[in-house]
């Protein structure tokens, strides 16, 4: 599979991994701590495929470990809706997507699109637009800070919109 094809058609189980990561993050957030026993229970009850469970665990741990930075970022970019005022599902969808964007594991636009899909499935009717707006702002700032476009290529010095 080519790189372009793999971006357009993500690895099988990626969405399922994200859904399980979200469920795990939500449970940890509700308990106020990372609980590996709880994560194992969620993952084992929800997926037979060990690769899906492993990816979900990796996504969840990465997002959980980076939540303080993600939350500060969101608080600054969306001060009217800081993480503490967001529904728990939205807060954790955003944390997961920020982890994917900043870790370079997933092309940023794919991470945002997947976050919007999670919001459509698991949250309110207003959540997809909110998640999209916050993550677009995060991506723009991330690209400015790293000097890279959404494809990971350096931006042109003469025109930052041309890669």
List the main descriptive attributes of the protein structure presented here:
N-utilizing Substance Protein B Homolog, Chain A, 8 helices, disordered C terminus, mainly alpha, 0% strand, 163 residues
> What level of helicity do the residues show?
55-70%
Strand content: under 5%
Order of helices and strands: HHHHHHHH
Sheet of most strands:
none
- What's the CATH architecture? Orthogonal Bundle
- Strand tally is 0
- Uncertain runs: 1-9, 153-163
Oligomer: single chain
Question: What is the CATH C level class, in words?
Answer: Mainly Alpha
**In one word, what is the shape?**
globular
How large is the count of helical segments?
Answer: 8
Could you name the CATH homologous superfamily? NusB-like
Summarize the structure.
The chain has 163 residues and is mainly α.
SSE topology sketch:
Blueprint: H1 3-8, H2 14-31, H3 36-46, H4 50-65, H5 67-77, H6 88-103, H7 108-122, H8 127-146
Helix pairs in contact: 2-3, 2-4, 2-6, 4-6, 6-7, 6-8, 7-8
Give an account of the 3D structure.
This protein has one domain (12-146): Orthogonal Bundle (N-utilizing Substance Protein B Homolog, Chain A), CATH 1.10.940. The chain is 69% helix and 0% strand. The two termini are 24 Å apart. It has 163 residues and is an all-alpha fold.
């Amino acid at each position: 599979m080519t790189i372009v094809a793999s971006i357009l058609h993500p690895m099988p189980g990626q969405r399922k991994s994200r859904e399980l990561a979200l469920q795990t993050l939500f449970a940890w957030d509700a308990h106020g701590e990372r609980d590996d026993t709880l994560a194992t229970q969620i993952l084992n009850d929800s997926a037979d495929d060990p690769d899906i469970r492993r990816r979900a665990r990796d996504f969840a741990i990465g997002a959980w470990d980076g939540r303080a930075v993600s939350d500060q970022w969101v608080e600054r970019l969306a001060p009217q809706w800081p993480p503490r005022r967001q529904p728990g599902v939205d807060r954790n969808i955003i944390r997961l997507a920020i982890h994917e964007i900043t870790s370079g594991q997933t092309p940023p636009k794919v991470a945002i699109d997947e976050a919007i899909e999670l919001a459509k499935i698991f949250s309110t009717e207003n959540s997809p637009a909110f998640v999209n707006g916050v993550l677009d702002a995060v991506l723009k700032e991330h690209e400015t800070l790293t000097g890279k476009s959404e494809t990971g290529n350096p931006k042109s010095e003469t025109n930052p919109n041309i890669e």
